[in-house]
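Hey, can you fold this one?
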Amino acid sequence: FMTMKKSIYPLTVMFNLNLRRGIYSLVGISEDIADERVSEHNNPLNWLAAHTLWARYLMLLFLGKPVKNPYAELFDNFKPYDASLDYPSVEEVKKEWQEVSVLLKNAIESVTEEQLAADAPIKNPTGDFTNGGTLAFLAQHESYTIGQMSFLKKYFTKEGENYKVSPVIR
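Sure. Predicted structure:
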């Protein structure tokens, strides 16, 4: 993420850190644990992970590089957790996280200041309705969701977050 515009640099630092944190939160997680809910009011780890991937694919829209989102059916229109749906496996999510992160990195490197300043096609709750403002919201949303994933990892495995062991996309 070293060749991007200065205005988006802080977001790229967050996205790269979240790549590592998100994948690490899945290390040591079995499919049984990934499906587990701590209460009927909480989402399971597999839902949170797939939701984060869905949002990473959505980010490409605001960077001018939209692609088909493989998780659209699971999450479009703010669809909540549904126990009757099949969410992707932990291994599938880890692999997909790497793939979408490469797309995100490439899109960030090629985005222009004009694209970032343009009106976003979807409005976000920050009040900054530009593509750049929407990306800032999605970075915060991603951090919030990964925080939940990290909490669940520690809850189920007794293993805390480790910033040193996960991959970085360069």
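The CA atoms of residues 3 and 119 lie 24 Å apart. Let me know if you want another pass with a different chain boundary.
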